[in-house]
UniProtKB/TrEMBL annotation:
It holds the Pfam family STAS_2. It comes from the Bacteria. Gene3D superfamilies: STAS domain. Transmembrane segments: none annotated. Residues 8-95 form the STAS domain. This is STAS domain-containing protein.
Length: 109
């Protein structure tokens, strides 16, 4: 039987061999602070291309996707996030609320 009383968790660690981070867990109300800190760090680092590896993220809520879109909006000219293997919900929410956002590239590979 599943334990529904566990606290959702999110871990964010540096990406091996590249500029960016690998996130694992859930991006929701309980983990927004961690997610927003990781995005702030990404904006500050100033890399032209910053990888967000999300293949181990099981859930992203609308606010988490909004935080990503807002951070992408602060990247500045010629910079972008490459979001790798995100949960399908993230792609749907981006396409619905932030269509054609040129600072986020989704890669399924």
């Amino acid at each position: 039987m599943e334990d529904h009383h566990r606290t959702p968790s999110l871990t964010v660690r540096p990406l091996e061999g590249g500029r960016g981070v690998r996130a694992a867990g859930e991006i929701g109300l309980a983990t927004h602070t961690i997610w927003e800190r990781a995005l702030e760090q990404a904006v500050r680092e100033g890399e032209a291309v910053y990888q967000l590896e999300l293949s181990e993220v099981t859930f992203v809520d609308v606010a988490g996707t909004g935080a990503l879109a807002a951070a992408a909006g602060r990247l500045g000219e010629g910079r972008r996030f490459v979001v790798r293997r995100p949960p399908p919900a993230l792609c749907r929410v981006l396409e619905t609320f932030w269509p054609g956002l040129s600072t986020i590239e989704v890669s399924m590979s």
